Amino acid sequence: MPFTKIHWSTVVPLLAVAVLAAVWGRKLSLLADVPVLALLLAAVLAAVHHAEVVARRVGEPFGALVLAVAVTVIEVGLIVTLMISAGDKAAPLARDTVFAAVMITCNGIFGLVLLVGALRRRVAVFNAEGTGGALATVATLATLSLVLPTFTTSRPGPRFSPAQLAFAAVASLLLYACFVAIQTVRHKEDFLPVEPGADDADEHAAPSARAAWTSLGLLLAALSGVVGLAKAVSPAIESGVDAAGLPRAAVGVVIALLVLLPEALAAYRAARRGQVQVGLNLALGSAMASIGLTIPAIAVASIWIDTPLLLGLGATEMVLLAITVVVAMLTVVPGRATLLQGTVHLSLFAAFGFLAVAP
């Protein structure tokens, strides 16, 4: 194959694995951290690109599910590697990352999709039944995993006891599994695009089986590279946050932004094609997977990681979560949204970002 025909998304996963083998077990200098961090970001983009290829092969709504699971694997890998390297300082990292992911998806990506859809057709149209069910699941998962630990009394601080953590993990998995069954089998039609004349560009044509299997292999390579390289540069990320004088919660925000940036681009492209429902599926599916899969995975990992797991949100974060759920429900009920709804959600996202750096 001529070199000019080799796509960047093919080179990056292989390069990430090669660099990982070269730096594994070594302490990197500042000069080496910068290119490795750039390669880490490129590997995240490549992973989601290949997940999109696989998603187009399996079709909607399975496609959004594939993307959400791929993003969650990256998120869990980053959280676990940072928890191992940072020790007790990383106790609230899972909470901060998951909460940031919820705010980014349910306000940032959600608002962006509505704004782009409304600009394109004056009114963004979507399926209220499916979107409302997804939003209700996200709200329940967030309450079980992030709000209740602040009020339980079995352990001091915003922590679950081992039994409570096990219950929250199992309940999260069951809720997520139930939603997946509803989305992909029993009520699949509630999550399909409803916009009249939504564009089906050639970019979205189903790839061949060979291309899908190739992308699956490259996806696994990219995910391996992301998790491994994250461990290598984790000291640099923490040092950068400390040097900038930012709160420790900013580390979780950086992880969530890094992981969800490709998802945001995919949702934006879907909205540009007039497929608002696909964009909302991506946003809420990522939020749901971020809680429903990340919390159980971190709960299992905490058995071997000697780091306390702080999950309960503070008062400011709970207010932001509550107003997000209320506003999102009011947005979803009519099944249509204008520029106003998109702007409101983006305003809440801006408030979250500002308070994350200036609490």
TrEMBL record:
Sodium/calcium exchanger membrane region domain mapped to chain residues: 37-184, 215-355
GO cellular-component term (any): plasma membrane
Record has Transmembrane helix as a keyword: yes
Pfam family, one: Na_Ca_ex
Protein name (Swiss-Prot/TrEMBL): Ionic transporter y4hA
Membrane topology of the entry: Multi-pass membrane protein
UniProt keyword Iron-sulfur, yes or no: no
Sample GO molecular function, one term: sodium:proton antiporter activity
Keyword line: Membrane, Transmembrane, Transmembrane helix
Record-linked PANTHER family: SODIUM-POTASSIUM/PROTON ANTIPORTER CHAA, SODIUM-POTASSIUM_PROTON ANTIPORTER CHAA
Location(s), subcellular: Membrane
Domain of life: Bacteria
Transmembrane segments: 35-55, 62-86, 98-119, 131-151, 163-182, 216-237, 249-268, 280-305, 311-332, 339-358
